[in-house]
Amino acid sequence: MRVKNWTLPYVITYILVWFTKQGYFTRVYKKGLNNIPKGKSVIFAANHQNSLIDPIVIATAGTTPVFFLTKSDVFKKPAIAKILYALNMLPIYRERDGADFMDKNRAIFDRCSEILSKRGRIIIFPEGSHDNDNRLRRLKKGIVRIALQAHEESNEDIWIVPVGLNYSNTRNKCADLLVSYGEAINASDTFRSKTDSTNENDLFTPLMSTIMEGLSNEMLDYSNQSYYELYDFLLAKIRRSRTTLIKKFNWNKDKNNKLTSYFDTKPNESDEMLVFVKEIELACKEQEVRPYLFNKKRHDILLPVLGLILGLPLAIYGIVNSYFPAILPEKLILSKIKDRQYDSSINMVLGGFLMFFFWCVQSFIVSLFTDHYIWFWYFLSCVISRWFSYEYHIYFLRFKGKRNYNIFVKANPEKTSKLQTYYKELKQFIFNL
Known about the structure:
Layout: H1 8-24, E1 27-31, E2 41-46, H2 53-59, E3 67-71, H3 78-86, E4 89-92, H4 101-117, E5 121-124, H5 142-153, E6 158-167, E7 176-181, E8 185-186, H6 187-192, H7 200-217, H8 228-237, H9 245-265, H10 267-287, H11 302-332, H12 343-369, H13 374-411, H14 413-432
Parallel strand pairs: 1-7, 2-5, 2-6, 3-4, 3-5
Antiparallel strand pairs: 6-7, 6-8
Helix pairs in contact: 1-12, 4-5, 10-14, 11-12, 11-13, 12-13, 13-14
């Protein structure tokens, strides 16, 4: 079994996915890369918010091939399974996958041990499933079992690096992404300190606690679920000045911890603020507006209208050249999937590949009828106009929101004034906390 060598399918996928990732997110920042032990056996333990995007983000952060465990469902068809194995994906089985799921997992754990014994790298999501919420769920023991087996069968120390994946939005493209690598944990040291333990919990619990603490330090963890909506509103929907991702994360992390303490000690005040949030959110849903609009009494829409008129020709050009690859993921896959947590993954991976493929085909056709590398400039125009058409779409939605807000203000002045007051009080609270 090859571990260190790059296979052709992995190389091609790595390159395409890296470029797709760069285009999908507005900003990507990787914090703490120096925490990854060089030339060591490493298990990346990450929170799991965004299905297929999560392993892609970690795998393309460095230049060392990475293996990752994923649900066995996608390995059912032999032809697809071969492709997935070539891309360093390994299946993990659950009880519903059959009575022999434990035996199958033992075989996978053996392969993981082999990879780690050769100083390979593996991505594991110890929560066991993905969830869009900013919360750290209870970890499964599989990561410790794999680390222990690799420790017993290898002369190498096994290191675990907590990875916090922090998305500003897990559903839509052009979001921000901060990947935060925490301090590496030497799992082998923990195992060596517990050589006399005969009870599994005595051996597993200390390492599980350390991993959980490490993960919690690198992500936003809205731990008080009763106030999840309040966390989300105060940290994600109150408008703030644009800053770097690392400053934004540090601010959010500090406020996150203070909010948890506040909610635990002042439930009455917290409940009152939650009422404010629910009223604002309800109005936003009914009027199709965003909460930040309540920061002003009215919004100017003259300049946005002018911008929409001037940008319309280029936006139409971008839509025409990218129409089919833009709608195919929705028509072929997303419309048939009930779980909306896969939207962003499919849009990024499949949408990115389709865009590139269609632009190449279209540019080839252009090259048959033109000279002087016009096909190259056409390809470049597809990329630029596609970016512009998406930004134009966002610009239009913001204009629409401001228009709806102004109509709402005119029709309901008293209610709007009350909601504006709520928003102002919530904003003052989080900034002064």
